[in-house]
Amino acid sequence: MAAPSGGVNCEEFAEFQELLKVMRTIDDRIVHELNTTVPTASFAGKIDASQTCKQLYESLMAAHASREKVIKNCIAQTSEVVKNLREEREKNLDDLTLLKQLRKEQTKLKWMQSELNVEEVVNDRSWKVFNERCRIHFKPPKNE
Q: What stretch or stretches form a coiled coil here (predicted)?
């Protein structure tokens, strides 16, 4: 599932997390998807498992790429906000509101960066399950 066409709201971390949750649906449901679409050996003749695996592979690749793009885009945007707040703070050392805002944005940036680690775990799990079920039906291109 791609990101909404209106762009991503990186300002609210809860919205950012909710978007990632929705975008991770394909990974959350991969076991079910494989169980219902890729036949076991006894049913192998009734379904074209290679085509099913190829389509799932392409869907996973697209989902992982779009999530990585969303996460990195929000990290870049938030990093820029943090940088600007730091510069502003250096000019106004007595401004406690600026300090609170800076700390809030720094915390949000750390959370967003941690989503890259979550993403790695989610992706690894999905590829493991995919390879267990699809390796005999479909070989991904070598360059990926």
A: none
Alpha-carbon gap, residue 15 to 38, rounded angstroms: 34
Q: Is the pTM of this model over 0.85?
A: no
Q: Which residues of 55-83 are buried (b: 16+ CB within 10 A; e: fewer)?
A: ebbeebeebbeebeebbeebbebbeebbe
Q: Enumerate the domain spans of the chain.
A: 12-34+47-133
Q: Give the total residue count for the chain.
A: 144
CB contact set of 131 (below 8 Å; sequence gap of 6+): none
Q: What is the pLDDT of residues 91-138, one digit of tens each?
A: 988 999 999 999 999 999 999 999 999 999 999 999 999 998 888 888
HSE-CB at 120 with a 13 A cutoff on CA atoms is 5
DSSP string computed for the chain: -PPPTT----S-HHHHHHHHHHHTHHHHTHHHHHHHHSPPGGGGGGS-HHHHHHHHHHHHHHHHHHHHHHHHHHHHHHHHHHHHHHHHHHH-TT-HHHHHHHHHHHHHHHHHHHHHHHHHHHHHHHHHHHHHHHTTT----TT-
